[in-house]
Design brief:
Radius of gyration: 17 Å
Order of helices and strands: EEEHEEHEHHHEHEHEE
CATH topology: Rossmann fold
Strand order of the largest sheet: 6-7-8-3-9-10
Number of domains: 1
Structural class: alpha/beta
Helix content: 25-40%
Number of strands: 10
CATH superfamily: P-loop containing nucleotide triphosphate hydrolases
Distance between the termini: 17 Å
Strand content: 25-35%
Length: 226
């Protein structure tokens, strides 16, 4: 099985005044292609810091992050941005949709940014994603005309366009009620199963984590099981 993501002795130290805070203390993690991994742990354990480093939004104090064989730690800011655009899809707790665009407009904007005119749009994949997420009848609605669950499904579709190597999901059900949480989690599971989409999900919820193929627990900046 191909390794799609790997961290090697990943460390992150924040300097707060004269105090050094060790957010990550030598994290080693490997995720294979088509795997669905949930990362759990209490607040302050370092899981969100790690997700931001995996996504190329933070640079670690030391250690390496390899995405699809490419080492983020050896890249310039511009190269890291380009890799993030091509290889990584993000799903956040806050939906972060453009309020003036329809659902379809939000998805197509993300597709144009990711593909940047270099690849042919995969309209068949887009249609299948929209069908699976049950969004076909909601594409002409703006975010404020959609429920929270529908907005998150649009955010998931936006993350998947352009076939990213990996999707990073940060508490994707954190702003949803229990019914919509179940719908979104089931759809993430189906997307992983149908498309072989690699997903790494940060969550506080054991119920959310239970849909993943593997659960990784963090405490005090370290992985305590794999």
């Amino acid at each position: 099985m191909k390794t799609i993501l790997q961290t090697v002795d990943l460390k992150m130290i924040y300097q707060i005044g004269k105090v050094a805070v060790n957010a990550l203390r030598g994290v080693n993690l490997t995720v294979n292609q088509a795997e669905f991994v949930a990362i759990m742990g209490p607040s302050g354990c370092g899981k969100s810091t790690m997700l931001h480093i995996l996504g190329g939004m933070l640079k670690p104090s030391s250690g390496s992050v390899l995405i699809d064989g490419q080492d983020l730690s050896k890249m310039s800011d511009g190269s890291r941005t380009e890799l993030r655009r091509q290889k990584i899809g993000f799903v956040f707790q806050k939906f972060n949709l453009f309020p003036t665009l329809t659902a379809e407009g939000n998805i197509r904007l993300a597709e144009r940014i990711r593909l940047n005119g270099n690849h042919k749009n995969d309209s068949e994949r887009r249609r299948e994603i929209l069908r699976l997420l049950n969004l076909e009848g909601r594409l002409n609605h703006k975010p404020l005309e959609l429920s929270g669950g529908e907005q998150q499904r649009v955010a998931i579709a936006r993350a998947l366009v352009g076939s990213p190597a990996i999707v990073l999901a940060d508490e994707p059900t954190g702003n949803l009620d229990s019914e919509n949480s179940q719908i979104v989690l089931k759809m993430l599971q189906e997307l992983n199963g149908k498309f072989g989409q690699t997903i790494v999900m940060i969550t506080h919820s054991p119920e959310a984590a239970s849909i993943a193929q593997r659960v990784v627990h963090m405490r005090d900046g370290q992985i305590v099981n794999k």
